[in-house]
Amino acid sequence: MVGAEIVSLDAFQIYRGMDIGTAKPTRKEQEAIPHHLLDLVSPEDSFSAAEYKREAEKVLRVLQNHGRKALWVGGTGLYHRVLTEGLSTAPRTEKEFADPMENMGTEEMAEEIRRVDPEWAKEADLRNRRRMVRALAVWRQTGRTMTDWQKNETVPGPLSGIKNYVLLPKIGVLTESIQKRVRQMLEAGWPEEVKVLMERDGWRGSPGSRAIGYHQVALMVEGKMGKKEVWERIVADTRAYAKRQLTWFRGLTNLQAIEIDPQLPLSKSVVETLVTALSG
Question: What's the pLDDT score for residue 280?
Fold first, then answer.
């Protein structure tokens, strides 16, 4: 309708071979509309927010040089933040600081975060071990909290100042949508996808394996969990994550919320609003 391309703001669609479980756009969809920032690395590779920002800036330059419009779409709040608000210049996490923390329990890590950087802990997802390791590593390496780095030494994001919208469904309707989608994914070959990934060296414990649902589906592939229980657990985990996403986005000041029903196509008024923003 407006010739827009799609740029992904999803932290797991960057991984090759993780298609069904991340709801990645199909090949047919990608052929119909150009998509960017998909399939960047293998699931065994780590990929930081700084690396995402660099790749996003490359895409942005190409779009601008060719006069193309784009919608940047996805639910990874950290990626949205580094593009719109910027990224601190805190040093890269050093292995000697990060590795010992992998042996810490999640709650133990959260307690230390609350003690050394309560302001960061208040806004963070304290179940996200990767982000907690990063925050603690910065503290141990530099003696300065992540909050201090973010407030005082942040490089502006390449998309700062643009119009941002968050599509907000009612949680009850969203739950029904999640239930339906997880069932469809399990029937569309998700177990087969996970089986292939499990045969790869380094898959277990890899960054990609931490995506919601992949652990449970792996248990089903191994015969350790039934399909119904897998479905129930993935629905519960996805719903909990969706609630955290909604809380995150509602707390941002540079976003306009639009109420939607995820089971229905976007209304004409919503589409017109987004198109107006895209063309502005």
Answer: 46
Q: How far apart are CA 27 and CA 11, in angstroms?
A: 19
Identity of residue 71 = L
CATH number 1.10.287.890 given to 171-241: yes
Q: CATH 1.10.20.140 region(s) of the chain?
A: 88-155
Tokens of 106: 């999640």
Summarised one tens digit per residue, pLDDT across range 207-242 is 999 999 999 999 999 999 999 999 999 999 999 998
Axis-axis angle for helices 190-198, 171-187 (nearest 10):
70
Query: SS3 breakdown of the chain: % helix, strand, coil, rounded to 5?
Result: 55, 10, 40
Assigned fold of 88-155: Histone, subunit A (1.10.20)
The distance from CA 136 to its chain's CA centroid, rounded to whole angstroms, is 21
Query: The whole model's pTM is what?
Result: 0.86
Torsion (CA) 229, 230, 232, 237 in degrees, nearest 10: 140
Structure tokens belonging to residue 47? 């990929």
Q: Which helix (H) or strand (E) holds 38?
A: none
Lowest-pLDDT range, 9-18, 36-45, 130-139, 165-174?
Answer: 165-174
Output the six-digit token pair for 78: 């950290």
> What are the residues whose beta carbons fall under 8 Å from the beta carbon of 159, sequence distance 6 or more?
60, 72, 83, 84
Question: Do the beta carbons of residue 183 and residue 231 sit within 8 Å?
Answer: yes
